Amino acid sequence: MAKLGDHTDTTWTQPEESALSGEKQSTSSGLQVVEETVKFVNGEVLAPPKTDLMNMAKPIADQAAAMMIQDMRGFLQGTEQILTVAIARALNQILESDGLIGTTALNKCEELMTKLPVFASEISESAIQITKEFE
Question: Which of 54, 63, 50, 52 has its CA nearest to residue 131?
Fold first, then answer.
């Protein structure tokens, strides 16, 4: 007889026949439906075939890679806008003052601009690697 929490044992005991003649028949057919339902849920829902999961992995990985590229694109566009203003202010400080503060700011902007392509290529390579992992 199955114990509470035991999902592997699907046996059951035949109910005793009561005074009502149809009760035994309806109970056993109802219990059979329940047993078939439990077997289906255990076999298909709780333990789905791995091939279906692997078929879903590729589109999900492709979506993750596309999101990485879009996030990188948004970051680069925002950085471009910030750098445009920063370079304009640095050039303004060079023209209006002795130039030391403006030159330092311009050098920092240049340093950042040289690091952006490295950042973008690392993100792109990671996105490509993610899609290759699930091929």
Answer: 63
Give the Cα-Cα-Cα angle 23, 24, 25 (nearest 5 degrees): 95
Model confidence over 58-88: pLDDT tens digits?
A: 888 899 999 999 999 999 999 999 999 999 9
CB contact at 8 A, 3 and 9: yes
Position of tokens 């026949």? Answer: 17
State the Cα–Cα distance between residues 112 and 53, nearest whole angstrom: 42
Q: 91-131 pLDDT, tens per residue?
A: 999 999 878 889 999 999 999 999 999 999 999 999 999 88
